[in-house]
Design a protein that fits this description.
Layout (H helix, E strand, L loop, with lengths): L2 E7 L3 E8 L4 E8 L11 E2 L1 H16 L8 E8 L5 E3 L9 E2 L7 H10 L2 H8 L8 H11 L1 H6 L2 E3 L1 H10 L3 E3 H4 L5 E2 L4 E2 L1 H7 L8 E3 L4 E4 L2 H7 L6 E3 L2 E2 H8 L7 E6 L3 E7 L11 E4 L6 E7 L3 H11 L1 H10 L3 H10 L9 E3 L17 E3 L7 H25 L6 E5 H4 L2 H11 L3 E4 L4 H13 L6 H8 L2 E5 L3 H30 L2
Length: about 500
Amino acid sequence: MKYLIGIDVGTSATKTVLFDERGRAVASASKEYPMEQPENGWAQQRPEDWRDAVLSTLKTVSASVENREDILGIGLSGQMHGLVMLDEEGQVIRPAIIWCDQRAKEETEDMLKAMPREEWIRITANPPLAGWTAAKICWVKKHEPDNYRRCRHILLPKDYIRYILTGVHATEVSDASGMQLLDVPGRCWSKEVLKALSIDESLLGQVYESCEATGCLRREIARELGLGSQVVVAGGAGDNAAAAVGTGIVEDGRAFTTIGTSGVVFAHSSQLCIDPKGRVHTCCCAVPGAWHVMGVTQAAGLSLKWFRDQLCQEEIRRAEEEGRDVYDRLNEMAGRIPAGSDRLIYLPYLMGERTPHLDSDCRGVFFGLSGIHTKGHMLRAVMEGVAYSLCDCNQILNEMGITVGEMMACGGGGRSPLWRQMLADLYQCTVKTVEQSEGPALGAAILAGVACKLYPSVEEACHVIIHEESQTFPHEAESRLYGEYHKVYQGLYRSLREDYQKLAALP
């Protein structure tokens, strides 16, 4: 039996999973690390924490294989858009500015002065975004010029791990698409964009397809992990592109919704499809020669985690006493509340928003709060508010003519039957899950398997490995009710947009 490893460098933790060649999880390990928020709207992490988590979890899972020569390859997945800067010695210069950071709003305005919005969309398939890597680079250039002068390599989070494992400075098309430096139709660095921003291309690594081999383990790393130095490290993919592979979304007509820290509605497309309004993101996907279109909710699972951490200490205590997952208890609480949460609506804008508003100033709101509402009402409203936001994403895909016949659910929130029912009711379609629950880690491992020639292609590997598990059907009455609530939800942003700007301007 041959084995593959998938590594998912997430926002809250790194998860490393060992799979056999049939895609069955053999061993799994994860390690958490903190996120720093030194100012409102900022978000940073230490790349060294990712490194330590990866090496620790790799040691754990690889110990499960008696003959480690049977481990053929490693695939990498991870949070997108982060900025990792290394000096000439390969040392981290500053904490990584991660995907949900919104500090670079002014830099997006500078980017629009450097090149018209239409040109940004034509080349990078997206308008300038504060959360994407290019704006973060511009922010460091302006506010930390000494750090920028020291910089010799710019990497994304998972690609920093590639450097640690292989010594190679490289990336791949799906993650690079989220840097806003890639020619997305051409699948290569855009000389036009780099010139407009005065960024030296030598700072950027070579771009590979996701299922290509990018290098092998450095000898000292291989020795430390007890692995052979012939282990291949594949290009891998950004977390959502990897999750698509891990749920079998590798052909037209298929899509998934993931509820992790952020939330995503993701559709595969064999043709380049760009929203001229820039409301959703088009990126290269992990299947060579194909793309994906995705809408993003900034604070999906993050909203529920925030509510848990700030307001659910009693539920956490009781769950620990009972040996249960606290989220199971929270789902039960929310499930006792009727759809619509008795006229309570939550806007999930804790970290600004991407789809459909592209607004870094908007913030979270409970609307309609009254004396009848309990913690359970607020909890269900949080889950419904995230579902309304994801429905916004899905509606835009429909407007673009992207027809989805199947919607898969994945991510931590995708394991919640209640959340899946909300999505089915709002999408008015069947929401499915697959047997494999490892999502991005499995997708990364499949990509490694293609790079090792264990599988002939990404699509054929998915046909063999991915199997459907459950289906959730929409309820007609609740679909109608949620449709009415969704209209009110959409109107609230329009009503509050100017107030958000005024609030952001206050000291």
